[in-house]
TrEMBL record, chain A:
One of its GO terms (biological process) is lipid metabolic process. Coiled coil: none annotated. This is Fatty acid desaturase. One of its GO terms (cellular component) is membrane. The lineage of its organism: Bacteria, Pseudomonadati, Pseudomonadota, Betaproteobacteria, Neisseriales. InterPro entries: FA_desaturase_dom (IPR005804), Fatty_acid_desaturase (IPR012171). Residues 63-330 form the Fatty acid desaturase domain. GO terms for molecular function: oxidoreductase activity, acting on paired donors, with oxidation of a pair of donors resulting in the reduction of molecular oxygen to two molecules of water. Keywords: Membrane, Transmembrane, Transmembrane helix. CDD domains: Delta6-FADS-like (cd03506). It comes from Chitinimonas arctica. The chain crosses the membrane at residues 50-74, 159-179, 211-235. Pfam families: FA_desaturase.
Length: 358, 366
């Protein structure tokens, strides 16, 4: 397990104050450069989407078709990560621009942004890695921590995880419906039905767009566009699944019992965010394509600061962690992903939490 | 240079109706339409209104008069109403409200008084130039003349409070109004007063200039608005329909005289500057513009706690400023971020109710 030492209440208070000070220093510097950046990111999303779809309209001429798929996949990934996810956190609310307002932003993703703002921005970011409160732990289908109760269902979880990766955006879209709880009888049919209409509307709308309207507009190239859109969506799903599972389910990521929430101080909240998250090291391109969620630790400490700041913040966060003897969970993309896979396979079988020496 | 001519764009805008309402509208995301639209022309927007700056002219010693041509998305206005004008300064958008006049050609004239240290007014004075595009909101407010203008009017203006009244006068002149109008126009110095030449040319307008910061000239008065001054300058005030506009203090003193005298029918509008109160827990007024109107509040606790204590149920999540669920549009007023201690006075901005405490009166879109 990770080698973080237990902080005394005073230490965790001081740890939190150092992070607050770092946050305030960054806040004071936010402005024109960040606004210009996110506008450029959006322009790249829109223009690559246009270019990608146009190329796909040329049909199955392999070189253009492949470039078209890659451009469209780029557009979908960045729309999902660096644009949609970060804008919806309110990172760019300081611009006062209705098009970048976290409260109303809509993204090109099967999950309605309202559901996302609730399950992700609120539940996941407030209760990060707290069992029973953060439903992102395994997304209801995968057992990634020994602390989760084992059931025979999990024996096949490598398969469930693969399915979830392929269909990731749909898994996220229906995630808020808590179907697992419905099948367990914990949610009534009426409660489920009340949540359905917006989800159905959004799923139907995006399905129509990528798999009916654009292919039909291409006329004779119907199949080329259909296949291209499907492949671009698949690439986006596999990529986002991988990045997101690497954010919280790596080897040293910790999970917490609900009891930690009782009288949790701001400092302790920071410590939990740190211990529940894990980073990916890599190139600037990697950071960009993950929406800077490769800096998952910084994102969890400061979810409302523009994500383009995380790389700079990481240097100081790491230094602070070192001084307080806190493990800073980072590693290469491949390395971290392997530990995620190891967890998925290991905890498919009954397992017991390792008892930490006091 | 825009790729499309403005005339074509403005002929096209009304034709976009099917994209705004109906079955097709649900397939079109406004921000995506607007993104591609503005690549072609800054005014090619689904709902939003951008106005082209036609001219900028100095008025008095501290006012700038902008003539704007709004896009065909603008629904027009009644004289006396106000509109939001938004400018982008270093990537951050700032909104201020102005009371424009509509010119005969459908253009909009906005008078911007330079405020000391004012970000937006300073920027407009220094940076705005013909050919720029500024965002304009749709007109709001009920400070307007009745459909049939009254025969006798009394207009009371202080400082930039002149603008909605000027808009009314111009509209009356356009209708060849034959009634009797008296105006009291207050300012610190004569040089501060905007639009004097224009006012002098109104037929049948009796204009009294009242200066509060320098000695009056011939035919002018001195001192702030008072009951005695009203009696002296407008003995028949009781027979007139009155409109008052200016800073909060001015409008309050006019209202007090009208109440004390039980005079009929005063319409008033105040440009309220944020009231700064540094102390810990003072009584203030919270205005929930969408739901209940005005309720008493305090400066000491968060807006979320206060709204809940007053029986409102705003959306909330983490209650610690991280999830943005309680994000809310603040129209005016100053709030303190309880995490950073920073006070923000910017009108029309997004704030989080759970970590914001009011510093003075606040108006929320809630």
């Amino acid at each position: 397990m990770a080698t973080s030492r237990t902080l005394s209440p005073q230490e965790s208070e001081a740890f939190g104050q150092e992070l607050d000070a770092l946050r305030n220093r960054t806040l004071a510097d936010i402005g024109a450069a960040d606004a210009r950046y996110i506008r450029r990111v959006r322009a790249s999303v829109r223009l690559t989407e246009l270019a990608g779809r146009t190329l796909l309209f040329a049909g199955f001429f392999m070189p253009t078709w492949i470039v078209g798929v890659l451009l469209l996949a780029y557009s979908k990934i960045v729309d999902n990560m660096e644009l949609g996810h970060n804008v919806m956190h309110g990172q760019y609310d300081f611009m006062n621009d209705p098009e970048f307002s976290g409260k109303t932003y809509e993204w090109d993703h099967s999950s309605t942004s309202d559901a996302w703002r609730n399950t992700h921005n609120y539940q996941h970011h407030t209760y990060t890695n707290v069992l029973g409160k953060d439903h992102d732990i395994g997304y209801g289908t995968v057992r990634v921590f020994a602390e989760q109760r084992w059931r025979p269902f999990y024996l096949l979880q490598p398969l469930w995880a693969l399915l979830q990766a392929v269909l990731f955006e749909y898994a996220i879209a229906i995630f808020d419906l808590k179907l697992d709880r419905y099948f367990k009888g914990k949610i009534s049919k009426a409660e489920l039905a009340a949540k359905l209409p917006p989800v159905k509307r959004k799923l139907w709308r995006l399905f129509l767009k990528d798999f009916v309207i654009f292919p039909l507009l291409a006329g004779p190239h119907f199949l080329a566009v259909l296949a291209g859109n499907a492949l671009a969506s698949l690439l986006r799903n596999l990529w986002t699944f991988t990045v997101i599972f690497c954010g919280h389910f790596t080897e040293h990521a910790e999970v917490f019992p609900a009891s930690v929430l009782k009288n949790e101080t701001r400092g302790a909240w920071y410590v939990r965010q740190l211990r529940g998250s894990s980073n990916l090291s890599g190139s600037r391109l990697l950071h960009f394509m993950t929406g800077n969620l490769s800096h998952q630790i910084e994102h969890h400490l400061f979810p409302d600061l523009p994500a383009r700041r995380y790389a700079t913040l990481a240097v100081e966060v790491r230094e602070i962690c070192q001084r307080y003897g806190q493990h800073y969970n980072t590693g290469s993309f491949a390395g971290q992903f392997l530990t995620v896979l190891a967890r998925i396979f290991r905890h498919a079988f009954p397992s017991r939490p390792v008892v930490k020496p006091a | 240079m825009p790729l499309l001519p403005a005339a074509l764009v403005n002929r096209l805008l009304p034709q976009l109706r099917p994209l705004r309402r109906g079955a097709l509208a649900s397939l079109v995301r406004e921000d995506i339409f607007d993104f591609y639209g503005r690549l072609l022309h800054p005014q090619l927007q689904l709902h939003r209104v951008f106005a082209r700056v036609l001219s900028c002219r100095e008025e008095g010693d501290s006012s700038l008069v902008l003539t704007l041509a709004p896009s065909a998305n603008w629904r027009g206005m009644q004289p006396g109403q106000h509109v939001a004008l938004t400018v982008d300064i270093d990537g951050i958008r700032h909104t201020r409200r102005y009371s424009p006049s509509v010119l005969p050609g459908g253009q909009v004239e906005i008078t911007v008084k330079r405020q000391e240290g004012g970000l937006v007014s300073g920027w407009l004075h220094e940076q705005a130039k013909p050919g720029d595009y500024l965002e304009l909101g749709q007109a709001e407010g009920d400070f307007v003349l009745p459909a049939t203008p009254p025969a006798k009017l009394l207009l009371l203006a202080a400082g930039s409070g002149i603008t909605p009244l000027l808009a009314m006068l111009r509209a009356l002149r356009a209708q060849a109004y034959q009634g009797d109008v008296v105006m009291l126009y207050y300012g610190r110095r004569r040089a501060n007063l905007a639009h004097l030449t224009d006012l002098a040319s109104f037929p049948g307008l009796r204009l009294h200039i009242c200066l509060t910061g320098e000695a009056p000239g011939d035919g002018e008065s001195s001192g702030r608005f008072s009951a005695a001054q009203l009696d002296e300058l407008v003995p028949d005030a009781a027979e007139r329909r009155a409109y008052a506009c200016g800073a909060h203090g001015f409008v309050a003193s006019v209202r007090a005289v009208w109440q004390a005298r039980a005079l009929p029918a005063l319409a008033d509008e105040a440009f309220t500057p944020p009231v700064w109160q540094a102390a810990d827990d003072l009584p203030i007024t919270l205005t929930f513009a969408r739901s209940v109107g005005q309720l008493p509040g305090r400066t000491g606790s968060t807006l979320l706690e206060q709204a809940e204590a007053l029986g409102l149920r705003p959306a909330f999540g983490c209650r610690m400023g991280i999830c943005n669920t309680c994000s809310c549009h603040k129209r005016t007023g100053a709030v303190r971020d309880l995490r950073t201690g920073l006070v923000s006075t910017e009108p029309d901005e997004a704030i989080r109710l759970c970590i914001s405490a009011p510093v003075g009166d606040v108006i929320l879109d809630l």
